[in-house]
């Protein structure tokens, strides 16, 4: 990832696998390895350059020694504020020491001292500018031209640099006084002289004297005005010189204001800083510390942050940056948006140096420290991760801090007049903090240097996220509006890759059959990043593997800017040693994305790992880039929440948080639902925060009520009473997309309102069936992390009127309470997958629906044993259920479920890379056979019942047949394998997507255990069932059909059934349909002319309540009389849907079998308990005296009880025993898998 893009979550951004939380280890590793040797050399040079004492200097002053030493803590970077290369320096202890005894660099002429270089008002502008630059800080400064003077000494009350012109104010006052005297003398002189000498009349002399004296007075005033203008021009000139040469200005006025405001600032404003520091420390904890938490943060009222210097940066230096920004924006914005951005105003740039120094307090008095100085309370949990943790509260006090920061304000014409604020640190700040442990009876004076160093390193690591050339930009407008809603994905589009096969690979192993000798698999990755993004299955002992797998990789701006190469690496899997690279193929992503919207078939020769080398073999594959689609205006809605009743839908306070909408795309995101024409796309899931998080009191009320008859049964009921405590959970979240674990957040220790701001982006094949499940768990030691609550979200239910949703959801189905804020965002991409691959995902179950599995033209004999297996599971039909068909030409296996026979269901983990593979074992061949059949699940659509008629093959290599994608269409072209068709296999089946009870057998580690537990929790609460179907919201479907029929008169006059068949795009040839009667065309396809069904009810009719009669008001009551079945029927009648037609919402509503019982379910352990009815459950409870029935009833509900810490699991020792049992079982399974062939599976994404 580009280091310049590492940032703290703000304004719609979030932590993710590509924007990880920084840790101290990585930060230290990034420091210069040669820094110590270089620093020692520079320190030695500085020791030889001691300042010379000058007796003529004022008291406390000294000659200035330049601190500009090349190489020490210095580096040249691109300043993100001005867009120019600058040299930055990390703050050291010497800088901190200088803040205790602050000095100003003053030109020697201002101290009446000789100077090698000085400024003079009579110098030319160019000379004056140069002399001022080399005699003004910062370094380098001309030697012998300046001295360092204490800040508050008398010598500082001088003008450091003489202005180019002098002050005229005393002369103006003198001229004005003399002008008054002159005007009076002229006035009286004219009167006296004219009257006495010439004998003139006073009526004539007085007006004449007044006019002349007034003229002289006004001329003098004008002269003074011109002089003042010249003086102001000179002052502006001086200010320009000061700004151009970056002279710091006095900021004591600002420090006075800060000291007054400091005590009024709410410490909660810095909650984000404390949260970032906690995340950094959590990601960097050593093994002896299990967890860490920031418990409290105070600013203190004794000492405020001081600004040491403040200077403005020239606006002209930003022009280069603005031009660069415009060029970047031209790539993805139109001209109108660019003009709107440019109207945002100009930029104002500042550089400030700030410092802080704590006030002395009584040693050990923590309350006095918190009252006066900046500090925070940390809680370290000492122990071993996963076993135990002892809390140790620590008080951390900020002793001193010095930092230099550059600010860039983007000004806007509208309030608050600041659009964005960008800042960057000019070098690492110097921060020193002390730590004191807190005990129950007060504070311990014992200092903790180890923890103090750890905290100081954590602060430095957090600060490194913002050191130049890295920066952070805050949208001030959105922050004031509280906008953290994400309205655009980070992904620009997806790379879709189909891997067909590899041919002619080199033999890597000594052993191997004909055409074998290697166990290949392919990893897809970005060449510079290196980490595998997708891996195919391992095909054993084959030099010509046929994979036929596909994957999608998200392309972000970082990938494009880094000039990443798409890398397909072919590996050989080994049992006892590291896997070997067989060859690889690379492709330029920058070139590919210039040709979007199409697939490019490739036959690529493999190249070696070393540059210029090659390897035997070639790879047949396809690749294409597909960008995000434009929003269709025909699907635009008002953006209101359609799940609300019509009477509440217009209330603003009940609508989703949409944030600030600045562009047309953002408006479209919050008002346009996903497009049914483009079901595949990028899904973004962000977990913001949780509030009111607490654990349920699983033990309930105390049965002894004597003396407490009138007390509430549970005193802990009501609002949560604390933000941190021993009873609060240490929560983390897991995100499941289509029942696959894709993301796991960091743990936030003992808090009732944890902030995560973390999430992920994933490619999904079909938004109409996609389900996101967010589980919140409590991190615990020596026991499984229990579920606090789950939130299942089906995209077609959440995104009915917009492509983005940010809402609060209650946590349910676990051992706690709370409300979680989650954001969902879906953007379609211009990718059309085959119908069979537009599905739910990898997880599902293949169901055999008929009563028999039959063969035609293949009948080796009765009692033939049938074995089946697929990706992750296997099944069989014993020979006793096999018999010959009536014509004697085939066999039939009974799978009706009647008698001793069983219904056949195969749970699947890897649907798009595995087949349902049949093995036929005639009598006498129970172990080995050469008769097989296969149907690949990637060719099977979701939830479609089909009659399958597939070939039965005799093959000399059953392993190769089961692992390669070999079908009836390509088996003749596969080399090194003999295949002969000997019959046909016929059965009826379907692929049911999603998790169900049969997937319990997949639990082999903690990740799979947590995944199945999340589904169980949703299922138990009635918000998930075992069926998942693709659904389009009725509102979206209506808008979609109107958009397709708009302007087509032939479709407007067609019946609803005919129109539905036209819009279904089921593959029929409708060439020439326009201008002909659709009924006639349908008759040609169906052999009859049918009338269509009645049109579905309008959206407005669906939203209206069935009755407003006061005698019967539907309050949504669910009890024994008004159960879920009645509510389900009303809902189906209201929506006008028919479950038999395939439009029932199987995801959120139970089917008829499951709904016939209680509102909740009994368990998911066995099939019998799933069908338990209310009467059976009641009967079991009434016969509670029968211990056998009591035990069976407990066993039927054990998983639900244990998941909610009830029954035996309410006691911690029992949970410890269950944890140890499972961990032992998982360890044994890992040992059994040692030496097996496996590829490189990508890890679960996280931000730590």
From TrEMBL:
<dbReference type="Pfam" id="PF00168">
    <property type="entry name" value="C2"/>
</dbReference>
<keyword id="KW-0597">Phosphoprotein</keyword>
<dbReference type="InterPro" id="IPR035892">
    <property type="entry name" value="C2_domain_sf"/>
</dbReference>
<feature type="compositionally biased region" description="Polar residues">
    <location>
        <begin position="107"/>
        <end position="126"/>
    </location>
</feature>
<feature type="compositionally biased region" description="Basic and acidic residues">
    <location>
        <begin position="61"/>
        <end position="87"/>
    </location>
</feature>
<dbReference type="Pfam" id="PF25331">
    <property type="entry name" value="C2_Mug190_3rd"/>
</dbReference>
<feature type="region of interest" description="Disordered">
    <location>
        <begin position="1067"/>
        <end position="1165"/>
    </location>
</feature>
<feature type="compositionally biased region" description="Low complexity">
    <location>
        <begin position="9"/>
        <end position="18"/>
    </location>
</feature>
<dbReference type="InterPro" id="IPR031468">
    <property type="entry name" value="SMP_LBD"/>
</dbReference>
<dbReference type="InterPro" id="IPR037765">
    <property type="entry name" value="C2B_Tricalbin"/>
</dbReference>
<feature type="domain" description="C2">
    <location>
        <begin position="664"/>
        <end position="809"/>
    </location>
</feature>
<feature type="compositionally biased region" description="Basic and acidic residues">
    <location>
        <begin position="1119"/>
        <end position="1138"/>
    </location>
</feature>
<feature type="region of interest" description="Disordered">
    <location>
        <begin position="1"/>
        <end position="147"/>
    </location>
</feature>
<dbReference type="InterPro" id="IPR000008">
    <property type="entry name" value="C2_dom"/>
</dbReference>
<keyword id="KW-0472">Membrane</keyword>
<dbReference type="GO" id="GO:0008289">
    <property type="term" value="F:lipid binding"/>
</dbReference>
<feature type="compositionally biased region" description="Acidic residues">
    <location>
        <begin position="1100"/>
        <end position="1114"/>
    </location>
</feature>
<dbReference type="GO" id="GO:0006869">
    <property type="term" value="P:lipid transport"/>
</dbReference>
<feature type="compositionally biased region" description="Low complexity">
    <location>
        <begin position="1154"/>
        <end position="1163"/>
    </location>
</feature>
<protein>
    <recommendedName>
        <fullName>Meiotically up-regulated gene 190 protein</fullName>
    </recommendedName>
</protein>
<keyword id="KW-0446">Lipid-binding</keyword>
<dbReference type="GO" id="GO:0061817">
    <property type="term" value="P:endoplasmic reticulum-plasma membrane tethering"/>
</dbReference>
<dbReference type="InterPro" id="IPR057349">
    <property type="entry name" value="C2_Mug190_3rd"/>
</dbReference>
<dbReference type="InterPro" id="IPR037767">
    <property type="entry name" value="C2A_Mug190-like"/>
</dbReference>
<keyword id="KW-0677">Repeat</keyword>
<feature type="compositionally biased region" description="Basic and acidic residues">
    <location>
        <begin position="1077"/>
        <end position="1088"/>
    </location>
</feature>
<dbReference type="GO" id="GO:0005789">
    <property type="term" value="C:endoplasmic reticulum membrane"/>
</dbReference>
<keyword id="KW-0445">Lipid transport</keyword>
<feature type="transmembrane region" description="Helical">
    <location>
        <begin position="179"/>
        <end position="197"/>
    </location>
</feature>
<feature type="domain" description="C2">
    <location>
        <begin position="475"/>
        <end position="604"/>
    </location>
</feature>
<keyword id="KW-1133">Transmembrane helix</keyword>
<feature type="domain" description="SMP-LTD">
    <location>
        <begin position="247"/>
        <end position="477"/>
    </location>
</feature>
<feature type="compositionally biased region" description="Basic and acidic residues">
    <location>
        <begin position="31"/>
        <end position="44"/>
    </location>
</feature>
<keyword id="KW-0812">Transmembrane</keyword>
<feature type="compositionally biased region" description="Polar residues">
    <location>
        <begin position="47"/>
        <end position="57"/>
    </location>
</feature>
<keyword id="KW-0813">Transport</keyword>
<dbReference type="Pfam" id="PF25669">
    <property type="entry name" value="SMP_MUG190-like"/>
</dbReference>
<keyword id="KW-0256">Endoplasmic reticulum</keyword>
């Amino acid at each position: 990832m580009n280091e310049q893009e590492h940032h703290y979550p703000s304004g719609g951004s979030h932590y993710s696998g590509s924007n990880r939380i920084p840790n101290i280890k990585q930060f230290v590793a990034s420091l210069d390895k040669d820094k110590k040797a270089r620093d020692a050399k520079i320190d030695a040079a500085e020791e030889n350059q001691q300042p010379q004492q000058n007796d003529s200097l004022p008291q406390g002053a000294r000659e200035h020694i330049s601190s500009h030493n090349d190489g020490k803590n210095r580096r040249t970077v691109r300043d993100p504020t001005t867009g120019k290369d600058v040299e930055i320096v990390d703050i050291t202890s010497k800088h901190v020491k200088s803040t205790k005894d602050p000095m100003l660099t003053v030109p020697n002429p201002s101290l009446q001292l000789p100077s090698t270089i000085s400024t003079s008002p009579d110098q030319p502008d160019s000379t004056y500018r140069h002399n001022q630059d080399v005699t003004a800080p910062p370094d380098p400064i001309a030697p012998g031209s300046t001295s360092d003077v204490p800040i508050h000494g008398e010598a500082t009350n001088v003008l450091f640099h003489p202005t180019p012109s002098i002050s005229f104010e005393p002369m103006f006052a003198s001229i004005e006084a003399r002008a008054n005297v002159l005007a009076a003398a002229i006035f009286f002189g004219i009167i006296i002289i004219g009257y006495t000498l010439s004998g003139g009349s006073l009526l004539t002399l007085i007006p004449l004297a007044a006019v002349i004296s007034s003229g002289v007075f006004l001329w003098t005033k004008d002269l003074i005005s011109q002089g003042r203008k010249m003086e102001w021009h000179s002052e502006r000139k001086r200010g320009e010189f000061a700004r151009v040469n970056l002279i710091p200005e006095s900021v004591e006025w600002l420090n006075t204001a800060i000291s007054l405001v400091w005590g009024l600032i709410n410490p909660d404003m810095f909650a984000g800083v404390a949260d970032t520091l906690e995340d950094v420390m959590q990601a960097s904890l050593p093994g002896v510390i299990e967890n860490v938490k920031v418990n409290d943060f105070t600013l203190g009222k004794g000492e405020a942050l001081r600004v040491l210097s403040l200077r403005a940066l020239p606006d002209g230096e930003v022009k280069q940056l603005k031009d660069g920004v415009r060029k970047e924006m031209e790539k993805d914005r139109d001209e109108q948006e660019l003009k709107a951005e440019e109207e945002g105003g100009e930029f104002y740039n500042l550089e400030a140096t700030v410092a802080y120094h704590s006030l002395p307090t009584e040693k050990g008095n923590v309350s006095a420290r918190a009252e006066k100085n900046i500090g925070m309370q940390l809680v370290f949990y000492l122990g071993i991760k996963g076993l135990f943790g002892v809390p140790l509260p620590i008080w951390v006090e900020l002793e001193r801090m010095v930092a230099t920061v550059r600010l860039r304000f983007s000004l806007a014409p509208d309030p608050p007049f600041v659009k964005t604020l960008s800042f960057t640190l000019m070098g690492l700040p110097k921060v020193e903090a002390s730590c004191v442990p807190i005990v129950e009876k007060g504070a311990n004076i014992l200092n903790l240097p180890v923890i103090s160093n750890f905290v100081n390193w954590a602060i430095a690591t957090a600060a490194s996220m913002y050191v130049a050339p890295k920066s952070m930009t805050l949208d001030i407008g959105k922050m004031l509006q509280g906008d953290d809603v994400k309205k655009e994905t980070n992904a620009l589009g997806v790379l879709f890759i189909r891997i067909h096969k590899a041919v002619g690979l080199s033999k890597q192993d000594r052993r191997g059959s004909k055409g074998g000798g290697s166990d290949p698999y392919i990893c897809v990755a970005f060449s510079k990043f290196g980490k595998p993004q997708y891996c195919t299955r391992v095909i054993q002992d084959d030099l010509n593997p046929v994979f036929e797998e596909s994957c999608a990789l998200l392309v972000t701006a970082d990938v494009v800017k880094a000039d990443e190469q798409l890398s397909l690496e072919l590996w050989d899997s080994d049992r006892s040693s590291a896997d070997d690279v067989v060859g690889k193929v690379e492709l330029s992503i920058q070139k590919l994305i210039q040709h979007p919207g199409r697939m490019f078939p490739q036959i690529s020769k493999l190249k070696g790992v070393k540059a210029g080398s090659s390897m035997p073999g070639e790879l047949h594959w396809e690749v294409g880039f597909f960008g995000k689609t434009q929003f269709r205006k025909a699907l635009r809605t008002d953006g209101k929440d359609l799940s609300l009743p019509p009477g509440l839908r217009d209330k603003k306070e009940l609508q989703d948080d949409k944030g600030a909408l600045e562009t047309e795309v953002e408006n479209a995101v919050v008002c346009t639902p996903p497009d049914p024409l483009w079901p595949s796309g990028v899904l973004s899931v962000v977990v913001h925060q949780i509030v009111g998080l607490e654990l349920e009191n699983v033990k309930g009320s105390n049965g002894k009520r004597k003396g407490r008859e009138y007390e509430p049964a549970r005193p802990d009921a009501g609002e949560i009473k604390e933000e941190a405590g021993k009873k609060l959970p240490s929560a983390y979240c897991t995100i499941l997309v289509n029942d696959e674990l894709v993301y796991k957040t960091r743990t936030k220790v003992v808090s009732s309102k944890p902030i995560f701001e973390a999430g992920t982006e994933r490619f999904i094949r079909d938004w109409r069936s996609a389900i996101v499940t967010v589980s919140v768990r409590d991190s615990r030691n020596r026991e499984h992390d229990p579920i606090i609550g789950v939130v299942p979200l089906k995209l077609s239910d959440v995104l009915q009127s917009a492509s983005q949703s940010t809402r609060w959801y209650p946590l349910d189905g676990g051992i706690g309470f709370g409300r979680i804020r989650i954001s969902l965002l879906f953007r379609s991409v211009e990718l059309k997958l085959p119908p069979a691959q537009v599905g739910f995902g990898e997880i599902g179950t293949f169901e055999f629906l008929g009563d028999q599995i039959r063969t035609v033209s293949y009948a080796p004999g009765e009692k033939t044993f049938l074995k089946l297996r697929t990706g992750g599971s296997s099944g069989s039909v014993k020979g006793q259920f096999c018999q010959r068909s009536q014509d004697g030409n085939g066999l039939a296996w009974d799978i009706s479920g009647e008698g001793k026979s069983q219904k056949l269901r195969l749970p699947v983990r890897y649907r798009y890379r595995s087949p349902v593979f049949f093995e036929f074992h005639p009598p006498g061949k129970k172990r080995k056979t050469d008769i097989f059949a296969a149907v690949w699940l990637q060719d099977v659509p979701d939830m479609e019942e089909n009659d399958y008629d597939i070939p039965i093959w005799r093959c000399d290599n059953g392993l190769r047949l089961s692992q390669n994608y070999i079908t009836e269409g390509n088996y003749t072209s596969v080399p090194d394998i003999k295949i002969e068709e000997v019959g046909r296999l016929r059965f009826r089946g379907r692929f049911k997507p999603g998790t169900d009870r049969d997937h319990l057998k997949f639990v082999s580690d903690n990740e799979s255990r947590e995944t199945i537990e999340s589904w169980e929790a949703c299922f138990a609460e009635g918000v998930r069932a075992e069926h998942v179907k693709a659904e389009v919201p009725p509102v979206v479907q209506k808008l979609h059909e109107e958009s397709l029929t708009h302007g087509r008169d032939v479709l407007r006059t067609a019946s609803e059934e005919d129109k539905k068949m036209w819009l279904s795009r089921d593959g029929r040839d409708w060439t020439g349909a326009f201008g002909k009667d659709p009924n006639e065309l349908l008759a040609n396809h169906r052999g009859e002319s049918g009338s269509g069904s009645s049109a579905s009810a309008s959206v407005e009719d669906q939203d209206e309540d069935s009755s407003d009669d006061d005698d019967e008001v539907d309050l949504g009551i669910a009890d024994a009389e008004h159960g879920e079945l009645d509510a389900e029927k009303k809902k189906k009648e209201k929506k006008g849907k028919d479950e038999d037609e395939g439009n029932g919402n199987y995801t959120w509503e139970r089917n008829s079998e499951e709904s016939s019982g209680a509102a909740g379910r009994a368990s998911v352990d066995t099939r019998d308990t799933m069908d338990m009815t209310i009467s059976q459950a009641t009967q079991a409870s009434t016969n509670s005296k029968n211990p056998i029935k009591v035990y069976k009833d407990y066993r039927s509900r054990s998983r639900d009880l244990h998941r909610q810490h009830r029954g035996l699991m309410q006691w911690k020792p029992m949970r410890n025993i269950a944890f140890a049992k499972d961990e032992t079982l998982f360890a044994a399974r890992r040992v059994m898998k040692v030496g097996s062939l496996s590829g490189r599976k990508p890890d679960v994404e996280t931000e730590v």
